[in-house]
Design goal:
By secondary structure, the chain is an alpha/beta fold. It has helices at 33-48, 73-80, 98-111, 143-149, 157-167, 172-191, 217-221, 230-235, 263-269, 294-305, 322-332, 345-348, 355-370; strands at 9-16, 20-21, 57-61, 89-92, 117-125, 252-262, 275-284, 314-317, 374-381, 385-393. Strands 1, 2, 3, 4, 5, 6, 7, 8, 9 and 10 form a 10-stranded mixed sheet that branches. The longest helix is centred in the middle third of the chain and has 20 residues, at 172-191. The protein is globular, with a radius of gyration of 20 Å. The termini are close together. It comes from Mycolicibacterium parafortuitum. It is an enzyme of class 2 (transferase). This is Acetyl-CoA C-acyltransferase.
Length: 394
């Protein structure tokens, strides 16, 4: 078994809520986002047995920080979870990778000696706070400089997914086969109890709500393209219009939380580390093809870690859209049989700010269940960015 040092940043606990449908009528719609996050925070400290007063900081990801998710939701959630008023909290936004970035910030704080015990978390209630609602009508978050740099204009993520599909010559059938496989893997993992250790049921929801075991390539083939536009078609004539609701991640609600400590603190508190944070990176990429950052992020994290692709036992690549993972696998040479082994966001869901911590929670448990050593997680992010993290099971 791999040993750890007193200075290592180690994961001693990770939990998540089941993921609910991100629309009115979804199982978690009536739960306020702060309460949704508070549930994961409370459950994490209960399961680890760590006194919340020992937590040096709570770093939470949330993307659409407006309305019910405004006003520093990390602080509001930790107070709602019953943590002492002395515990601070801060909310970060690196778009879809927000809570994976929270994990990185938490680990960096431990490695720097600034934290002994820290929680990295994330939340998104897309049913209560719709994606994009923080951009007010008539506002311009990009500025004149960005407009001048990209005079033809940037595009929405769905169009980026179409561009990736066309550039990597991926067929609609390939996208749908991958997506159906995600549902089948997630359904099998649910049936076999592989998510049980990581789930913290809430509001009567005990398992992920969105997974559809009956999904087939044939049913997905009947769905219409979701992002077709005559103006975009004129600008990019090579687009094949293959992206549908079935090969994209759905709108989702959920939260997740990961406790990270120093090795010394884990020993002092009598905690069993599950994994150590081996290496973390963040990269920028082409904002037009904004979802391809996972490719250079994977290369960079492996180089910085001094590891090769063959050293990695399990990969988790966020399934924002099916072509993201397929293009990543083609460019890196990674084995899809070792990727998202319990299904991914197309089936489980993608509650934006929570997804990084959700995926980390799933990865930690998958490594444990398989007795594997190294896991690599990477996520594409709006604006052309990506995070990548390597963890080592202990």
């Amino acid at each position: 078994m791999t040993q750890y040092s007193d200075r290592d940043a180690v994961i001693v606990g990770a939990v998540r809520t089941p993921v609910g449908k991100g629309k009115p009528g979804g199982a978690l719609h009536d739960v306020l986002p702060a309460d949704l996050l508070a549930h994961s925070l409370r459950e994490l400290t209960t399961r680890t047995g760590v006194d919340p007063a020992a937590v040096d900081d709570v770093i939470a990801g949330a993307v659409t920080q407006v309305g019910d998710q405004a006003a520093n939701i990390a602080r509001n959630a930790l107070l709602g979870a019953g943590f002492p008023e002395s515990v601070p909290g801060t909310t970060v936004d690196r778009q879809c990778g927000s809570s994976q970035q929270a994990v990185s910030f938490a680990a960096q704080g431990v490695l720097a000696g600034a934290y002994d015990v820290v929680i990295a978390a994330g939340v998104e209630s897309m049913s209560r706070v719709p994606m994009g609602s923080s951009v007010l009508p008539g506002s311009n978050p990009f500025g004149a400089g960005t407009a001048a740099r990209y005079p033809e204009g940037l595009v929405a993520q769905g169009i980026s997914a179409e561009l990736i599909t066309a550039t990597w010559n991926l067929s609609r059938t390939q996208l749908d086969e991958f997506s159906a496989g995600s549902h089948q893997k997630a359904a099998r993992a649910t049936k076999d109890g592989l998510f049980d250790a990581e789930l913290a049921p809430i509001a009567g929801l005990a398992t992920d709500e969105i997974i559809r075991p009956e999904t087939t390539v044939q049913t997905l083939a009947g769905l219409r393209p979701a992002f077709h536009s005559d103006a975009i078609a004129a600008r990019f004539p090579d687009i094949t219009w293959a992206i549908t609701a079935g090969n994209s991640s759905p709108l989702s609600d959920g939260s997740a939380a990961v406790m990270i400590t120093s090795g010394a603190a884990a020993r002092r508190l009598g905690l069993r580390p599950l994994a150590r944070i081996h290496t973390t990176v963040a990269v920028g990429s082409d904002p037009l093809y904004m979802l391809t950052g996972v490719i250079p992020a994977t290369e960079k994290v492996l180089t910085r870690a001094g590891l090769s692709l063959s050293d990695i036992d399990l990969f988790e690549v966020n399934e924002a859209f099916a072509p993201v993972v397929l293009a990543w696998a083609r460019e890196t040479g990674a084995d899809l049989a070792r990727t998202n082994v319990n299904g991914g966001a197309i089936a489980i869901g993608h509650p934006l700010g929570a997804s990084g911590a959700r995926i980390m929670t799933t990865l930690v448990n998958a490594l444990e269940q398989r007795g594997a050593r190294y896991g690599l997680q990477t996520m594409c992010e709006a604006g052309g960015m990506a995070n990548a993290t390597i963890i080592e099971r202990l």
